[in-house]
C-alpha cells in the first residue's frame, strides 16, 4: 500500500438514481475508519492511476464505513466511468484519509444549502449534521428530472424532510429555483453553501456576489472543472524556488507542477484541475495567472498563493515558497 493511503473494500454498490451509484467503503482489515466532518471528501485511487475526489455522504458519527455517491459522466476524464464500470462489490481500493475544504460555519444563524445534481452529496451530510444540532437551515436540490435525483428515499424519511425543496428542469416553471428570491438581499448571519456542476455554481455564486453577499458567508466546492487548454499568448516563464534559489523554466503548454516534477521537485497534487486545493502554494514574488476554481476572487486578488497544477504567471518570474 502507498504511504498515507487506506485500503478499503467495496462492501456494497447500489443504484441510487439514473446514472448514479453509491459505494459503501469499509476498512479492509475491519478496523475503524478515520473520523470526518460534514463537507469532507476522500481521494479515491482508481485503476490506471486515476485519482478523483468524492464527498462523503454518510453520517459523520459512523466510523465503520464511508459512503460516496458517483454520477456516471461519459464526458468526464474517466474516473466516474471507471467506478461505475470497473469497480464491483468486494473490490479493494486505496483512498486518502478524509480532507475537508468545505466545512460548516457553525456560527451561522441560518444555513442555505443549494445543490445541483450529484452536488447533493456533501450538502446532504451537512443537512443531517445541522438537523442533529437543531440549527436553522433549508436545502434546495436542483436536478434534470426526478429519475435523476439521488437520495430521495433517504431525504423523505429524514427528520428534516420538510426543509427540503426539489427543483426539476423538466418540471413546471413554478417549481424552478428562484435565485432572486433566495439571494436577493444579503442577510447577517446567513451562510450560503453551493455544490454542483460548474454552470449551476457559477450562476449561484455570480448572483450572490452581484447582490453583495460577503465572501465570508459564501461557501462552495467544485467537484470538477472544464479542461484548461493552453490560451493563445501563453508564454514561457520562470519559477524560482525560495529555499535554494534554483530556477525552473515553465514552457507554454506545460503546467508548473509538471515542469517542477521534470526538474526533480515534487509538489503534492490530487485533482490537477484547480479544484481541491491540495497543491496550494505560497507566492513570495511575482503575479500569478489564476486559473483555479478553489480560491475566492478575494484570495486570488491578494496574489500571495496559487494552485500550480493549473495556474500560470503574468510576470516573467514567480518566486515560490518551495
From TrEMBL:
Q: Which UniProt keywords are given for this protein, alphabetically ordered?
A: 2Fe-2S, Dioxygenase, Flavoprotein, Iron, Iron-sulfur, Metal-binding, Oxidoreductase
Q: Where are the annotated coiled coils located?
A: none
- The top EC class is oxidoreductase
Q: Which stretches make up the 2Fe-2S ferredoxin-type domain?
A: 237-322
Is the Membrane keyword given for this protein?
Answer: no
Q: Which residues form the FAD-binding FR-type domain?
A: 3-105
Asked if the keyword Ubl conjugation belongs to this entry, the reply reads no
> Out of the domains of life, which is the source?
Bacteria
**What EC number(s) does its UniProt record assign?**
1.14.12.7
Q: Which GO terms describe its molecular function?
A: 2 iron, 2 sulfur cluster binding; metal ion binding; phthalate 4,5-dioxygenase activity
> What is the protein named?
Phthalate 4,5-dioxygenase
Organism, as annotated: Leptothrix cholodnii (strain ATCC 51168 / LMG 8142 / SP-6) (Leptothrix discophora (strain SP-6))
